[in-house]
Amino acid sequence: xxxxxxxxxxxxxxxxxxxxxxxxxxxxxxxxxxxxxxxxxxxxxxxxxxxxxxxxxxxxxxxxxxxxxxxxxxxxxxxxxxxxxxxxxxxxxxxxxxxxxxxxxxxxxxxxxxxxxxxxxxxxxxxxxxxxxxxxxxxxxxxxxxxxxxxxxxxxxxxxxxxxxxxxxxxxxxxxxxxxxxxxxxxxxxxxxxxxxxxxxxxxxxxxxxxxxxxxxxxxxxxxxxxxxxxxxxxxxxxxxxxxxxxxxxxxxxxxxxxxxxxxxxxxxxxxxxxxxxxxxxxxxxxxxxxxxxxxxxxxxxxxxxxxxxxxxxxxxxxxxxxxxxxxxxxxxxxxxxxxxxxxxxxxxxxxxxxxxxxxxxxxxxxxxxxxxxxxxxxxxxxxxxxxxxxxxxxxxxxxxxxxxxxxxxxxxxxxxxxxxxxxxxxxxxxxxxxxxxxxxxxxxxxxxxxxxxxxxxxxxxxxxxxxxxxxxxxxxxxxxxxxxxxxxxxxxxxxxxxxxxxxxxxxxxxxxxxxxxxxxxxxxxxxxxxxxxxxxxxxxxxxxxxxxxxxxxxxxxxxxxxxxxxxxxxxxxxxxxxxxxxxxxxxxxxx
Length: 592
Ligand code: GCB
Description:
The chain is an alpha+beta fold. The chain has three domains: 31-196, Sandwich (Jelly Rolls), CATH 2.60.120; 199-288, Immunoglobulins (Immunoglobulin-like, Sandwich); 372-590, Alpha-Beta Barrel (TIM Barrel), CATH 3.20.20.80. The protein contains eight helices and 37 strands. An eight-stranded parallel beta barrel has the order 23-26-27-28-29-32-34-35. The protein has a six-stranded antiparallel sheet with strand order 3-2-4-10-7-8, with no helix packed on it. It starts with a helix and ends with a helix. The structure holds (2S,3S,4S,5R)-3,4,5-trihydroxy-6-oxo-oxane-2-carboxylic acid. (2S,3S,4S,5R)-3,4,5-trihydroxy-6-oxo-oxane-2-carboxylic acid binds next to loops.
């Protein structure tokens, strides 16, 4: 029998997880002294995991006549950073294991400055050495981390080595099974950052909860031991707010202001600078309010229907992870073309390029940690890992007004352990950021034949602000009745978003609209029509997110003709062709 206390005691007693604390800098993209270390890196594939015992991190060269070394970073494989390794070398397509990356960079060890490495995302585990010294480790493929280099950096040429491991783990998040290609590697940008001893580590500049005329937040400095002067300026609003931190480098503020509110039709952004005498970070920030009232989601006080779509962080045409501004533009222009004002960045925090661009384009965002089916909730380590991922996600994106919902999980089965972990995560999310909504996606709505009604019994659904429902009617579950006769009484006291629905269809494949096994565009088109009819009977429906925008790669899709390693639920094919169902969705959104 699961019991509560030991779970949490054990969580505190767990020493095996190597997770870093929240001391990384926000927003390297807005920092003047951040140098991208992107480009070609040397690499060694270490399938049997010998590299650490052979001390690859020393990058040793033979000394004298009798010495030799049985590895070398130079003269071998070269990999693009950012980039997943699975798509860069054919032999690495299905690879799970260690890959070692190495490159040199030149640095100046400026007096009274501190130096860091900032990794925007490495999947799944990373260990980092500089000049042979270990500078840190991190677990979790979709959130940033930073390493302090102060003790290891030298003036001149520095030797940087990263060991990446993408092997699935039973105690991982995600764990052993998931329906997407979980590319491994240094997936996102890498920065070398040089900052003054006392510098801006963190800031929040958003509207005060429930207020449209008060900008509130805080500034947190790093390295300060005495009060410091700080300025928050927003030129366009004539704001130049002088502040003084406490001895720990922290100051909170509230500023009276009347910013133009951000909304999908007018995504107004303001240039914001947070500075000290020696340091500054710049950002583009928007202001809006988000709340629920009964069944409604209110954006700036007005009810909004979320016209959404899901997508993975993948460029199907390139068969790899999306990682650049250009990739974000490709995906998000297709989101816009569909008529959306909302996206669910499934199933993990996607790169900052995507989140920032969506916000600039006026797209609202549901952002989620990768707590997907099959998580080992009874293992106390899971709560710790999930908390860290949640903290890292919120830490990175708390200034993104486009993000309106933090999601804590997707399709997890109720149990005492799971209920406890998830309700803890809901509470932590509210504690970290009380200005947004907390959601989760549930796949356990049940049909009651006697009343023709769908219900949901789940403690976690009671704890969240917005309930997401994933229901594949017409695909994994046949429609139990004509769609217009099906009733829904799910989470009736709050907004419901249909976070997933859809079915597979191969672009260009045709057949009768009532035969699922033909994988035809017609079947998919009809399935969408039927779902939209049924949606009229969901009184608290406040948003829809078809699954999914593009066909995406998945190792668990085995049908040789219709799938061949692809999940074909895309409204758009892997080659960018729009399927018939695309037009049904587009029409539905035109009428909302
Ligand atoms: C789901 C999952 C999603 C899958 C999808 C499917 O419920 O949340 O990750 O890809 O179903 O296609 O089966």
